[in-house]
């Protein structure tokens, strides 16, 4: 009787295991699929990064942007996505950006490109640092958030050297802002070669400085008739902006094209 009972027990255990193993396997597979599904759900909940437009159109102006100027631009040229304006007033040259103007532009979903032009000599490392400090101060007074670019306006008739460019770049980089340079970057001008020399001496130039070039000149157009982006700047530079038309007869503006990458650096 004991041997028979033992055989029966073994048979029942074997049957139990044969029944249990498939159930256990199914539970493991279900659990694995459930976890995979949850992970997939988490990934779907993450908001994808917005794709930046390849090219955007904008204007810049030395004049104060009131509603009349905004309507003039919109009616005659189109709706800009970028509006370049100056930090601080420079007598007989440009009116400085203020908080009312900032509100008007932001209410129209327009990004502000910040320009600094309170110098006429772009030579010397110490001078580059000095001008950068003043630009940073003006930006902070307006409440410009960190990460936005400030463009040094180096006009065609200004003397310029690589020391100024390096000084400007290093001091802006030491702040919460990003360095930019505006100018006529043609191979027959000092700015082109001095910038290239600065980049050869300091590898942070091409890595951090954003270029807004004013060459070549194609002439003022409306937004719809803007040319294809064809700005010129030294090889390897972060060429994100091109002022292709200057001195419109109406509305006192210049017209520009910008690569979408610049949006991270505009206010």
What secondary-structure arrangement, pairings included, does this model have?
Blueprint: H1 2-45, E1 55-60, H2 67-76, E2 82-86, H3 99-107, E3 111-116, H4 125-142, E4 149-153, H5 162-173, E5 178-183, H6 190-201, H7 204-208, E6 210-213, E7 238-245, E8 254-259
Parallel strand pairs: 1-2, 2-3, 3-4, 4-5, 5-6, 6-7
Antiparallel strand pairs: 1-8, 7-8
Helix pairs in contact: 4-5, 5-6
Quick structural gist:
By secondary structure, this protein is an alpha/beta fold. The chain has 7 helices and 8 strands, in the order H-E-H-E-H-E-H-E-H-E-H-H-E-E-E.
Key structural traits:
267 residues, alpha/beta, TIM Barrel, 2 domains, eight-stranded mixed beta barrel, 7 helices, 41% helix, 17% strand, globular
Overall description:
This protein has 267 residues and is α/β, with parallel strands linked by helices. The chain folds into 2 domains: 1-48; 56-265, TIM Barrel, CATH 3.20.20. It is built from 7 helices and 8 strands. The protein has an 8-stranded mixed β-barrel. Mean pLDDT is 88; it is low at 28-48. The chain crosses the membrane at residues 12-30. Keywords: Membrane, Transmembrane, Transmembrane helix. This is DUF1906 domain-containing protein. It holds the Pfam family Rv2525c_GlyHyd-like.
The level of helicity is 40-55%
CATH superfamily of the largest domain: Glycosidases
CATH topology of the largest domain: the name is TIM Barrel
* Pattern of helices and strands: HEHEHEHEHEHHEEE
Oligomer: single chain
């Amino acid at each position: 009787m004991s041997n028979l009972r033992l055989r029966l027990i073994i048979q029942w255990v074997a049957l139990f295991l044969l029944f249990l193993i498939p159930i256990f396997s199914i539970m493991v597979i279900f659990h694995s699929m459930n976890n995979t599904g949850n992970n997939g759900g988490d990934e779907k909940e993450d908001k994808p990064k917005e794709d930046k437009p390849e090219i955007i159109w904008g204007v810049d102006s030395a004049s104060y942007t009131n509603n009349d100027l905004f309507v003039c631009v919109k009616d005659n040229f189109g709706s800009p996505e970028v509006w370049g304006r100056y930090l601080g007033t420079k007598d007989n040259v440009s009116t400085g950006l203020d908080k009312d103007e900032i509100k008007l532009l932001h209410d129209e979903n327009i990004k502000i490109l910040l320009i600094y032009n309170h110098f006429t000599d772009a030579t010397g490392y110490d001078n580059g640092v000095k001008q950068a400090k003043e630009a940073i101060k003006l930006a902070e007074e307006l409440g410009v958030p960190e990460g936005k670019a400030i463009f040094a306006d180096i006009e065609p008739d200004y003397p310029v050297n690589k020391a100024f460019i390096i000084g400007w770049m290093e001091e802006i980089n030491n702040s919460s802002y990003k360095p930019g340079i505006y100018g006529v970057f043609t191979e027959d001008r000092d700015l082109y070669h001095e910038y290239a020399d600065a980049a050869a001496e300091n590898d942070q130039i091409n890595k951090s400085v954003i270029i807004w070039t004013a060459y070549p000149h194609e002439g003022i157009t409306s937004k719809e008739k803007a040319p294809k982006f064809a700005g010129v700047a030294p090889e390897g530079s972060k060429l994100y902006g091109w002022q292709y038309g200057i001195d419109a007869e109406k509305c006192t503006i210049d017209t520009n094209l910008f690569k979408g990458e610049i949006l991270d650096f505009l206010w």
